[in-house]
Design brief:
The chain is mainly α. Helix content is 73%, strand content 0%.
């Protein structure tokens, strides 16, 4: 009995030590964002026409901003045993930490968006963690072969469409000119059903194939998929395609080594430090706008913009889409990102895209945020159940990291589930599970 007690005591101390390291890594990441905001962002974009980042320091705000981050980091999972670590890690990286930095370094910034984000994180975590009997999920016979076939067919179809429309022969690889061509390529390629198939091919099918190639150590598949990501950038002008292979390689290495997400936050912190230093030293305006402003702070700023707008205007109550046939409002038949963008900056035809917190609040206020968070918690629990049934955690982590980020930062939840591939990704993970069951993997 004494040995058991001693073992439990040692295990508890180790767990507390790892939790402490995770909390410190969150603080370290926030400090890297604080430095980037203070030295670069507030100077270069302090009075930006759409997403300004002014610097108005107040000690109280700054201390409180760390408290908000601490409130989330003391409970969130950070291991690689399932999808939970990378799921909530993406929220910290791209939404919560930037929000706390903005609040801590701008005394005019309200705390409401941070409180809503923490509420959403807690709800998603609680729903995903509810203890219920684990069910053995049935798998489709030959599901693995079906998944691979779907990926290959959709990649082939995308290549054919880009050739047939001529987009393949007008590719642009100059990062500074992407906005000149993006709308043109989208109008050419994303027509009808291809608006969905193209996105799934770029965001789910090809990353899945790359993840399988890494898992099987098949270099032909790996090189082909990396080449396709470069091709996707050329014909769509979306820069994130260039970073997808790096993210998947990082996920593969992290899950193979079973590193906690603590390491990911430390790497991200160092990346922000180095990037900020190079931007300032070499005056890299394009890289600075892309890495620091667009990737790390714009989602948080837009979330704050939506919450502020719908705090002062009527909620949508889903009258823009789902319930538009039942009652008419000022939002009926409106694309909300363009509607809000036009209200903030009239006449620019600007899509002001936000994620779960902003979009949920627009629909039903705090209740809308809670409903969206609960749905994401159910989704996470479903993926974790498939992992428990034998799917390697690396596979869903590799293919769902970006769609999960999109759901939290850049898209209404319904669009994230359908258009951006969360449901399709879930289907592929389920199909892949038949392969693991066949080989007796657990």
């Amino acid at each position: 009995m004494t040995n058991v007690t001693a073992y439990r005591s040692t295990a508890s101390k180790q767990l507390l030590g790892k939790r402490g390291q995770f909390v410190l890594s969150c603080v370290f990441y926030k400090i890297s964002l604080d430095i980037a905001y203070t030295l670069y962002l507030s100077d270069a974009f302090g009075s930006h026409f759409l997403t300004p980042f002014p610097f108005k320091f107040a000690v109280g705000n700054y201390i409180e901003s760390h408290a908000w981050l601490l409130l989330a980091s003391i409970i969130l999972p950070f291991t690689t045993k399932n999808l939970s670590g990378i799921f909530f890690g993406s929220v910290i990286l791209f939404l919560l930490a930037p929000l706390t930095t903005m609040y801590g370094l701008n005394s005019d910034q309200p705390r409401y968006s941070i409180a809503l984000t923490v509420l959403a994180i807690y709800l998603s975590y609680l729903v995903s963690s509810i203890r219920t009997p684990r069910l053995k999920i049935p798998h489709l016979r030959n599901g693995y072969q079906i998944a691979i076939t779907l990926c290959c067919l959709n990649i082939f179809l995308f290549i054919v469409v880009t050739a047939a429309t001529g987009a393949m022969f007008r590719m642009n690889f100059e990062i500074s000119r992407v906005y000149e061509f993006r709308d043109e390529f989208s109008e050419t390629l994303d027509v009808g059903v291809f608006a969905y198939l193209n996105l799934w091919t770029q965001k789910i099918f090809t990353p899945f194939l790359l993840a399988v190639g890494l898992h099987k150590k098949n270099w032909v598949i790996i090189i082909f998929c990396i080449g396709m990501q470069v091709f996707y950038f050329g014909v769509t002008q979306h820069r994130q395609h260039l970073f997808v292979p790096l993210l998947i390689l990082f996920a593969w290495h992290t899950y193979n080594k079973q590193w906690p997400f603590t390491y990911g936050l430390v790497v991200a912190s160092l990346f922000v430090f180095v990037s900020t230093s190079l931007i300032l030293a070499l005056n890299l305006e394009v890289i600075g706008a892309l890495i620091v402003r667009r990737a790390l702070f714009v989602p948080a700023s837009v979330t704050e913009g939506w919450v502020h707008y719908f705090s002062e205007n009527p909620y949508v109550y889903f009258s823009d889409n789902i319930l538009s046939s039942f009652f008419a409002t000022q939002y009926t038949n409106q694309a909300l990102p363009f509607y809000v963008g036009d209200k903030i900056l009239p006449g620019l035809n600007l899509a002001y895209n936000t994620g779960l917190v902003g979009a949920g609040f627009a629909q039903l206020g705090v209740l809308g945020v809670m409903i969206y968070a609960i749905i994401m918690g159910v989704y996470l629990r479903t993926i974790n159940s498939l992992i428990w049934n034998g799917v390697p955690a690396f596979i869903p982590a590799a293919i769902l990291f970006l769609p999960v980020r999109t759901a939290w930062t850049a898209s209404d939840l319904s669009s994230a589930l359908l258009s951006h591939g969360l449901i399709v990704g879930l289907m592929l993970v389920w199909l892949y599970g038949s392969h693991m069951q066949k080989n007796g993997a657990r």
